[in-house]
Amino acid sequence: MQSAECGMDKQTQAWRDETPGCRGRNHLNNAGASLMPQPVIAAVEEHLRREAEYGGYEAAEEAEKRVAAVYDDVARLVGACPANIAVVENATVAFAQALSAFDFRPGDVIVTTRNDYVSNQIMYLSLARRLGVAVVRAADLPEGGVDPESIRRLAANPRCRLVAVSWVPTNSGLVQPVEAVGEVCESLGVPYLIDACQAVGQLPIDVRRLRCDYLGATARKFLRGPRGIGFLYVSERALARGDHPLLLDMRGADWTEADAFRLADGARRFENWEFSYACVLGLGAAARYALEVGVAEVGRRARTLAERARQRLAALSGVRVLDRGADRCAIVTAQLPGWDANEVVSRLRQRGINTNASVRAYGVIDFDDKGVQSALRISPHYYNTTDEVDACVAAVGELVRERAA
Ligand SMILES: Cc1ncc(COP(=O)(O)O)c(C=O)c1O
Prior knowledge:
The protein is an alpha/beta fold. It has two domains: 10-30 and 295-400, Alpha-Beta Complex (Aspartate Aminotransferase, domain 1); 41-292, Aspartate Aminotransferase, domain 2 (3-Layer(aba) Sandwich), CATH 3.40.640. It is built from 15 helices and 15 strands. It has a seven-stranded mixed beta sheet, sandwiched between helices. It has a four-stranded antiparallel beta sheet with strand order 11-12-15-14. Helix 2 (38-54) crosses helix 3, helix 7 runs parallel beside helix 8 (178-188) and helix 12 (295-314) packs parallel to helix 15 (386-404). The longest helix is centred in the C-terminal third of the chain and has 20 residues, at 295-314. The model has no long low-confidence stretch (mean pLDDT 96). Pyridoxal-5'-phosphate binds at residues 90-92, 117, 166, 169-170, 195, 197-198, 218, 230.
């Protein structure tokens, strides 16, 4: 057994043995979509097979108890009750459903950050265009990351209807101080929406500590679930207010009279009727797997690997590591001299290394502040090894030298 923090010890080997994708690739794109472990693959495959053999509706009925258990497992993962979990298609749908629950009027204010996720920023701007909502972004701290005191000042505006924060943005390794923002929101009595898409599976989540009204996430990233499924936590406070999405379907409400409907109890009112049940079961398996491996511990390992990548990249001539903030996670971004990041990604892929590119349009404010058009994004997870991180950095080093020659 190796004692090095991130070497190939027995535990790492066991995680890798359960991850078929590890065999053929050096997968450092967990912020894009992580590799699914065997129990997740089995849950999805088994249900698909059952749908094919038995019928889609019939297979869903047969799986009813296992589907109900998905809510228990996701709830445990975030410190909530099962009735406060809605299963939705992805993090974007989760966010949109929550956002649409607010009856915004012209002049109402949404307070957000300079680093919120691109699609969320577009949704705020769409609300501004259609409804005349003012979108106000809180100032950052000198070291990066939003200043909770700036949020306090802006959210104290009596027209502030919502504070919305992406915990970990897609375009850098920043971790926003979501707990401190939660304290501010609670003290002002302002609703609080968190996008936890890149946080779930790499950072422990307890919605009670976050004091949020809503928290949305997706399965496929650090949680290691399948693509095409996510969830939304809806607080008791939001349910008691009678919050519901603007456009409900027959799962979210019952049509009781020609001109009347009755809301479903609990967070289910935020769901749509049609589900990929195979993916729902895959989400449950991923949540159970994450609970078993222990998010706090494996998240630390992922962040240690990321820090190693940052230090080694920074030592390469001309490479600029772009991640800011007091607290940084398992997403590493870097600018490579003379390269468009998309080109680097495809050259690394040819060598069996999966990474991703972040481009200006994914984080206009952040990228303009940093003066970059694109960045290579390397996102290790706990099943990766130091050798994999080092191999990736070595390959990046060769590309840097190639362009410099
Ligand atoms: C911070 C953040 N929020 C939301 C999303 C959207 O997730 P989905 O594609 O599951 O809707 C992403 C995707 O990269 C993300 O990084």
